[in-house]
Design a protein that fits this description.
heterodimer, A: mainly alpha, 2 domains, 0% strand, globular, B: mainly alpha
Chain lengths: 191, 194
């Protein structure tokens, strides 16, 4: 990431900006926050380019812990150190936590209503599409990848087959396919 | 829930709850949800702190609510607390479970990310980011597929798959606000179209 602050590539202005931005993000994210994070941070606020987002997401995904929480932590930490990390983390957790507790109290009353279950099912189908679409959008960032578009497509298809169709554990896929891809990228990068 | 157990919790039980989430934190590669089977083993089968219904509802509600899905862990702590004696205990359960599952992974991720940024010109760091890029992009598409198949499952549920596919194309190609789509999904479900 470049540290140049330009109109096309602004930074978060303050700890409050981080906290509020991630709170707003989290509150839009039904069924997972990732789609909203990509749209807000890359397309609207432009704190990250699409390529940077994929790179940061790779780290957030490989480290233990919730991916979106990791991503918030990393972006906050990048600009304001440990305080920024805590502000972004608090933003993405605090208000949603109260909402989810409230929802649990309400759910206890209405759980048996058939319409509620069906509506949740419909929202679940939409949430699945949101996440898949984010993947297709970010695939555009692979054009400049050092592996080349052919190898990227090959690794992508293999990964999809292993995870979605064969249902292999994520850790094996990350270590196996991911490790192989990293070794090949290492060999293609100039020392 | 009428069949919820009534628990007697002392400091030892609370500590056990905290330590369980603390140890799972570093195993939660790919999100806390990947450790849900072990949470089920510990909370439901071994200790009977939660019923099956409470366990499943915790996950479903967190998925339906806005915010990161990891909040399902907070709901498990909440329900354990309720079983152990009401709202104050519920809040203690939330605090212990959520801090347990977040502290170790957060510390590790922060340290690793800062190190990676300081050494971002290093060949190995660049190779890691470039090599992992196609994997993580494909993982997103695979996650969408898995979520769609837990909703739909068989070919008889083709309408669920159609809805997921339509949303994929719409979000990919347009800038329509995501809440409209979720609202439409809720209505289609409510009126029995999917």
């Amino acid at each position: 990431m470049t540290d140049a602050r330009t109109p096309d590539h602004p930074h978060p202005r303050s700890l409050t900006d981080l906290f509020v931005s991630f709170t707003v993000l989290a509150l839009q994210g039904f069924g997972g926050v990732l789609t909203v994070v990509q749209r807000e941070l890359v397309e609207k606020k432009r704190w990250l380019t699409r390529e940077e987002f994929v790179e940061e997401w790779a780290v957030a995904q490989v480290m233990p812990g919730p991916n979106v929480v990791n991503l918030a932590l990393m972006i906050g930490g990048r600009h304001f150190g440990i305080k920024g990390a805590m502000a972004a983390l608090a933003g993405i957790i605090t208000v949603p936590l109260f909402l989810v507790l409230l929802l649990a109290l309400i759910h206890a009353q209405f759980a048996s209503h058939a319409g509620v279950a069906s509506a949740l099912r419909g929202m679940g189908a939409v949430a699945a599409g949101l996440i898949a679409a984010t993947g297709f959008k970010l695939a555009g960032a692979l054009v400049n990848n050092v592996l080349g578009i052919g190898l990227c497509a090959l690794f992508g298809v293999l990964c999809f087959i292993a995870v979605a169709l064969l249902r292999w554990p994520l850790a094996y896929v990350l270590l196996g396919l991911g490790g192989l891809a990293c070794v090949m990228a290492y060999r293609k990068l100039k020392p | 829930m009428s069949d919820a157990p009534t628990l007697v919790f002392g400091a030892g039980e609370w500590l056990g709850l905290f330590l369980h989430f603390l140890t799972l934190s570093l195993l939660s590669v790919g999100g806390a949800i990947s450790t849900a089977p072990d949470m089920h083993r510990f909370l439901v089968e071994q200790h009977h702190w939660l019923t099956d219904a409470q366990f499943n509802a915790s996950i479903a509600i967190a998925q339906a609510a806005p915010g990161p899905n990891v909040l399902f862990v907070a709901l498990m702590g909440w329900n354990v607390g309720l079983n152990a004696g009401g709202m104050p205990a519920g809040l203690l359960g939330v605090a212990l479970s959520l801090s347990g599952v977040l502290i170790p992974s957060t510390v590790l991720t922060y340290a690793a990310a800062q190190w990676g940024h300081r050494n971002r010109e290093m060949r190995a760091v660049r190779a890691f980011k470039q090599g992992m890029a196609p994997i993580v992009v494909a993982l997103l598409i695979a996650t969408g597929w898995i979520l769609a198949s837990t909703n739909g499952g068989s070919l008889e549920d083709w309408r669920v798959w159609l809805l997921t596919a339509a949303v994929t194309v719409i979000v990919w190609r347009t800038k329509i606000h995501l809440l409209w789509l979720l609202g439409a999904g809720a209505l289609l479900g409510w009126f029995g179209f999917v």
